[in-house]
Specification:
2 strands; about 425 residues; two-stranded antiparallel sheet; Growth Hormone, Chain: A; globular; mainly alpha
Length: about 425
């Protein structure tokens, strides 16, 4: 496989930054939930989601118009500098106001909108088409491995450790391990260090583009963005497939930032340890999916595999709505991680075979805009105080499950046409 060293270096840099980001993005929602400010956070999340509509389109044009290595360098350095500045203020003042914590969340969230499309576009650019599924799986392995570590550490940092008591076959043990609870500015400092380390790794990465992209930096940005829109408008089946296959991602992201803290605290009546463990189970399901999903569905078409995982997601969310058991919540989190990761691998592999490499960034950004609109609708709806009272959050889970149910039915109806899209398609997508 070509550019192997570049891919390995890219995965390492992504893993480093993802580790600290995972801790931060898990800590911030819990920070506001523990302060009884869930509605404030969800309202801000809705505003950030609304603002990301334009930024997502602009990011796609940047990805297709600039050196993708330079984009990684720029985003890591700028984000690291911002997080470091806020962390330094927290150390100086002995804490941070909620407004600055929200700003960091918004900044990292906006960073996601350019980081991940750039990551996948870069991977497509420097890898062979025959290895798209393998490369997508590696991205999942690295991402979810770091997510597991981030979830485990977040569970410790959010609550601290005051000794560990264990009961093994009736024998009781006490491990004198004591770790103080970390403040948000301390977590931010860890995040900033990871950004700068990732910057150094990427700077040392060998990179020779395999394709000379036709878009130039001096091209009109509006014209550039419109080309992504025009491609999807002229390829409606690809458009519908992307929308429906992204439904899993939509509801999982809404759940992660808007619902899980409320579900754990208000419905399950549990602490941050359960929140961290749930993220650990989710990441474990994603990691195992990255290793086995291709073999598990080896004899099945990519659209059919995505259809099955869409209905599995519906089942998982309906089960969450009906259950109040912690152990079952962990099982459901594992299942959601498994299907979200698997569907992403197959979706990326399917779209890589259809979308030209020089349009990948803008097409992905168009899909991000679509999914952002859906997420915004859900987030605004769930920001109503009704959902933060008692176990009312379970109604939100039922609503999200119905969303993937509808998406799955559309995929079933159009399944024969999706198969024809890749019939006779060259394994190497053309470049405009």
């Amino acid at each position: 496989m070509k550019n192997t060293n570049s891919l390995y270096t890219l995965f390492l840099a992504n893993g480093v930054s993802s580790f600290a980001q995972g801790i931060t993005m898990l800590s911030i929602p819990w920070y506001f939930t523990s302060r009884g400010e869930s509605s404030l956070f969800i309202a801000f999340f809705a505003i950030v989601t609304l603002g990301s509509l334009f930024w997502g389109l602009y990011a796609g044009a940047l990805i297709d118009g600039f050196n993708r290595k330079d984009i990684f360098l720029g985003t890591n350095f700028v984000q690291g500098l911002i997080v470091m500045s806020v962390a330094s203020l927290g150390y100086k003042e002995g804490g941070l106001p909620s407004s600055l914590v929200l700003i960091i969340f918004g900044m990292i969230f906006f960073g996601y909108l350019i980081h991940y499309p750039n990551l996948y576009a870069f991977a497509q650019e420097i890898s062979d088409s025959d290895n798209y599924t393998r490369v997508a799986s590696w991205i999942e392995v690295v991402g979810q491995t770091t997510a597991i570590g981030a979830a485990a550490l977040a569970a410790v940092l959010l609550e601290g450790v005051h000794g560990i008591n264990m009961d093994v076959l009736g024998l009781k043990f006490h491990i004198p391990l004591y770790i103080d609870k970390w403040a948000m500015h301390e977590i931010f400092l860890l995040d900033a260090g990871a950004y700068f380390l990732s910057f150094i790794i990427i700077m040392l990465m060998p990179y020779t583009p395999s394709v000379v992209l036709s878009i130039h930096q001096d091209q009109d940005i509006w014209k550039s963005m419109k080309e992504g829109y025009d491609y999807l408008r002229n390829n409606l089946l690809i458009n519908v497939f992307g929308l429906c296959s992204y439904s899993i991602f939509v509801i999982v992201l809404v759940e992660l930032f808007s619902l899980v803290p409320m579900y754990v605290r208000n419905h399950l009546h549990q602490s941050a340890y359960v929140l961290g463990t749930s993220e650990l189970m989710y990441a474990s399901g994603s990691l195992i999916s990255a290793f086995v999903i291709s073999k598990l569905f080896a004899k099945m078409s990519l659209p059919k595999a995505i259809i099955i995982m869409t209905f599995m997601t519906t089942f998982a969310f309906y089960l969450s709505a009906m259950s109040g058991l912690v152990w079952l919540f962990y099982v459901v989190c594992f299942l959601k991680g498994f299907v979200n990761s698997g569907s992403r691998i197959f979706r990326v592999s399917y779209l890589f075979r259809l979308v030209p490499v020089d349009l990948t960034g803008r097409v992905n950004s168009m899909f991000n805009v679509y999914t952002t609109i859906f997420r915004m609708v859900f987030i605004l709806a769930f920001a109503f105080p009704f959902f933060s009272h008692g176990s009312n959050v379970t109604y939100a889970y039922a609503i999200l499950g119905t969303f993937t149910l509808v998406a799955g039915l559309i995929l079933v109806i159009l399944y024969p046409k999706f198969l024809k899209l890749t019939a006779g398609v060259s394994p190497n997508p053309p470049v405009h």
